[in-house]
Amino acid sequence: MKKLLLINPVGRRSGFLLSRFSTVQPLSLAYVASVTPSDWQVSIVDEVFGDVGAREADLVGITAFTSNINRAYQLADAYRAAGIKVVLGGIHASMLPDEALRHADAVVVGEAERIWGKVLQDLEDGCMAGVYSGPWLDLENSPPRPRRDLLNPGYMFQSVQTSRGCPFNCEFCSVSTYLGTAYRQRSADDVLDELSGIRSRYILFLDDNLVGYSSKSKDRAKLLFEGMIRKGLKKRWWMQTSINSADDDELLRLAARSGCMFAFVGFESISTETLRDMKKGINIKIGVENYRKVVKAFHRNGMGVTGAFISGNDYESVTYYKQLARFLVSAGIDAVQFAILTPLPGTALMERMKREGRLLYECFPEDWSKYRLSHVVHKTIGVDAATIYQGENFVKSHLYRFPVNQFRMIRSVLAIRRPVSFFAVSRLNQAYKKAWQGAHYYRKHPSFSQI
Prior knowledge:
By secondary structure, the chain is α/β, with parallel strands linked by helices. The chain is built from 18 helices and 14 strands. It has two domains: 133 residues, Response regulator (Rossmann fold, 3-Layer(aba) Sandwich); 294 residues, Alpha-Beta Horseshoe (pyruvate-formate lyase- activating enzyme). Helix 7 packs parallel to helix 8 and helix 13 packs parallel to helix 15. The longest helix is centred in the C-terminal third of the chain and has 19 residues.
């Protein structure tokens, strides 16, 4: 029997990755496994649980983001040197297929499910080469189910994907380029059927936005939540969603009753001008002045809020970071994820930085190791890199120092009023703190309070 080895590489093990609570399954590989013919023996290896090591295979498939693409190339080069064919896929390879093809026998661009059979047939015919473009999957008509049996049992959360695509075009994001601007959804019944077959109680909805962007998509989310309640699935889960979800109290009540512990929400910035630069239209429409109402809406329904923020935007200042630190505490956001603004392949931000000659590191692929959302990789206007690092350290020092961190957690438990939801956001808060304490800028750059 022919052997297919699917690999999720890890470029660098951070404190966040080392937390079992925050480790995410490589679901894309499980989908590839599901459309692989039965005469192939398939195995999936996630380097979160240790290096791949020496493994026999007739074909190796590797997926990667920009942050771990160099590890993917290293593995690909090693297997090809041993005479084994290699296919690269994932968002980075899809955005830069010519680069990826220098390290692989073939590259799958986009979604693999409907093109994978062609890749395998070409391999058997001895003519596998070049770039294969996978057409977008029709999610309404019985999409394949991932091979969960091949995934490592060590994950706390089982990942479920119910939609793909995004109609927005935020400057820093490549999702709409990668998966299209059409928001494609599985039916609520199809998702419920999959959930019923998952034994684990803990679920991560992997969608970029589970609730969606229209009244139709909100109705589908409500049907899904109602079905989870009706079937008595008793899952504990979390989702990514936009701030417009807070406008619908019925939706939030159903989400909480069906087991939602917390939502990951993209606030991005407390500067309206910065949001305009990002083309973050939905946030501008809701308004920064209403961010607190968004948090309260989730809390009122017994769910925590993990807020995503991007630092390192043009014209940020010491004053801005101090305002942000105060806002995060006063708004009651339970856990905070920070990322430094990074022009990634396939984003409008990357194209603008190229046009303006603002990229600091362009020795690719080696320099992709710096494009990890934790390193300033382009020339900023009105703020220097040292201020960005110091500013982020200042905000995090403020969040995690005694007694502010303890005050935040006490207020979270009182606001959420559901032990399971509080437990989830407190664990995530600990994971973010651990990641920050292991980051290079924490060690190298003092915060404002230390200057």
